[in-house]
Amino acid sequence: MLFEKPKHHHHHRVSEFQAVVLAGYGSSNRLYPISEEDSMPKALLPVGNKPVISYTLDWLEKAGIHDIIVVIQAIGSSPQKLSTYLKNYPGNVHCQVVSVDEDDETADALRAIKDKIDRDFLVVPCDLVTELDPRDLLDAHRVYDPTFSALFYEPGLSESASKDDDLLPYVGIDSTRNALVYKALRSEADDFSMRMSLLNKFSRVRVHTDLQDAHLYIFKRWIIDMLVDKEKITSISKDLIPMLIKCQYQKKLVKREEIEKYSSTYENLLANALSLSTTQSADIGDESFTDDPIHLSFKSPIKSYVHVYRGGFCGRGNTTASYNELNRNATKQGTSITRVPSSAEVAPRTQVGNDSIIGESTKIDERSSVKKSCVGSYCVIGKNVKIINSVIMDHVVIGDNVKIEGCIICKNAHIHEKASLKDCDVVYGYIVQKDSVLKGEKLVDFREAI
Q1: Of 97, 258, 323, 382, which residue is most buried, by most CB within 10 angstroms?
Q2: Share of the chain above pLDDT 70, in %
Q3: Separation of alpha carbons 143 and 138, rounded Å
Q4: Are residues 129 and 35 in the same domain?
Q5: CA atoms of 42 and 25, how far apart (whole Å)
Q6: What's the predicted TM-score (pTM) here?
Q7: What strands lie across the sheet with 345-346, from one edge to the other?
Q8: Is 221's pLDDT higher than 90?
């Protein structure tokens, strides 16, 4: 007998997880001036000529997650611009945009959308670009079944060495159970200390100083209920994660914060399944967590899982240096992308390197060269122009004999002939005068404060 499989439309399909994408939180000031409200929200900054958030959405779709809430701070016209983009987003995901108060931190944002979250959920920043296969992370999360999972990665050279970045944190991992048991910011002067209770509970801790927090987390649904009651938790990475980490070994903290009350609302699906099994005993799978007979530590209701990703590209565009790095990665040699679309007009004696990309309908005149750069759509570039290691957004006009190196040039900027710019950020609509020689500047129009 043949059974025909019913055809599912994606809006009927309930995915196992929901996703919350944080669009432009906290680091917009580190991207000053390129994500100013007049130019564009951080989520829409181009990486390889596609909005950076499209990489996140694509990654979530690969993970089989179709129900996505995009949270953005209500600054200027950012929510409208983002909604317009997402309405026409070609992927097979359903996004709702929620704008929250400008001063809301990340955990505040989760509280604001508490009624929209009805199952376990991922939190992911809009500027994370990674080659990590999402199924690797989700499968491990299912196996460990922790309260939360966190992703850490080994950053590329420019990210760990960039001058505007802090030192990488101390990350303590119990390698026997892949638990995240310690995380602290590092500063040049700080001494390093750990509690005995941590070492009693987790005797095999390795402390890493070469890992970056991707700020991608998977949480149990009950975490939201807890956040609703605990308004003092404002930031996910600064308040919530450190508290959950400590709850794994601090009995008093678990009691004080009444963690049991929240976690008991969640039935352990694995235990439930095993109790129904005819071949497995219900306590199997838990023997790695039996208490150490010498230190009768308590059994914490909190369990973490940390996924460490090395060997492939992973990065965030939350500083101008790392944003540049995302663009370099997106257009590096060997990537299968259309480098010069048929609508672009590139003069015959102009070179576009095979590590660069040109947008639709862009015109480049004679004897110019583009290396290690992304040039957007509808740009007009004159004769004998050199563009190296730069990001040029849409509708930029560049005059003859201009040299641009290591720059980010925002939409509608105008660079007059013979200007030379090195390591500059040029804001939306800015006009660079003829013959200007500028290095390391942030070029911003001073608008009258209203």
Answers
A1: 323
A2: 84
A3: 9
A4: yes
A5: 9
A6: 0.89
A7: 345-346, 363-364, 380-381, 397-398, 414-415, 431-432
A8: yes
